[in-house]
Amino acid sequence: MELRHLRYFVAVVQQKGFREASRFLHVSQPAISKTLTQLEEELGTRLFARSGRTVRLTPQGEVFYQETLKTLKQSDHAAEAAQRAARGEIGTLTLGFCSVATAGFLPGIVRQYKELLPGVRLLFRELNPPQQEAAFAQGEIDIGITRPPFAKKLASELHVKTILREPLLVAVPSNHPFTGRKIKIESLSEEPFILFHRDGAPTVFDAILGMCQKRDFAPKVEYESDMMQTTFTLVAGGQGVAIVPMCTLNLRPEGVRFLRLQPDEYKADLVLAWPKNTQSTVLHPFVDLMERERKEIGSQARRMLEAASHTTG
């Protein structure tokens, strides 16, 4: 049984005859008659009671007609959905993101994307960079906002665009003697350090240790925290200082002041990544939107950094 059989059947019913259906469909009357005879043979029952030129449905034909209308409607809906999906108007996009790093701009990007493509379902996965690597490898996310670098094999399979290059800042208690100064990292050699655990941000963790080693000292690590909020709680409580990416200003911690490092020799990159072999038609509008907004994201970050330079938490 083909959709063609069903469409011929409905046309005969609605046009009230084979001749009229032939004109409506622009198909020869013998072809329609032969097709519907085949349909009746396949079903094993008569759909029409024929009397001369008069055609009416049998009781079983009436039941089949009602069900056929549903089938054709669903078929049309399926075809339309496939066409809309091909145009990128509907579908699902799964986004991996680092919550603190994206808090300043992601809500606005999401609103714009949903206004552009309201039929697309956005799924969110809050994942740190190592978790996003694993999610990409398993095909669990379509696109990610994360930090490089990636494992060599995975890096060759991804498109990567830099969204933002963030300086590292020193978080100190608001009453710390260094407050209000630009400081060199070697000035922190005698300070107790609070580090965000390497498992959550290996690139930044390694960069901090590398900067200290370059200045011939090893940081005195008092605590390693699993959450950035915990890091700032300890800083505000006078338990040490922390070197953190600029994005952590989004947390607006109380009792904490942020200082600029001199010089700003390391930048923590935030990137947009997605598989090169993707077949998703709803992904590229998100990429294009991020590209258009990248300048504003940078401007917003600079304003936030300038404000933090003059405000005590």
UniProtKB/TrEMBL annotation:
**PANTHER family of this UniProt entry?**
HTH-TYPE TRANSCRIPTIONAL REGULATOR CYNR, TRANSCRIPTIONAL DUAL REGULATOR HCAR-RELATED
The record's annotation in Gene3D superfamilies points to:
Periplasmic binding protein-like II (3.40.190.10), Winged helix-like DNA-binding domain superfamily/Winged helix DNA-binding domain (1.10.10.10)
Pfam families in UniProt: HTH_1 (PF00126), LysR_substrate (PF03466)
- Keyword Ligase in the entry? The reply is no
Q: Where is the HTH lysR-type domain?
A: 1-58
UniProt protein name: Transcriptional regulator, LysR family
> Family assignment?
Belongs to the LysR transcriptional regulatory family.
What cellular component GO annotations does this protein have? protein-DNA complex
Q: Does the keyword Transcription regulation apply?
A: yes
Q: Which domain of life is it from?
A: Bacteria
> Molecular function terms in GO for this entry?
DNA binding; DNA-binding transcription factor activity
UniProt keyword annotations, A-Z: DNA-binding, Transcription, Transcription regulation
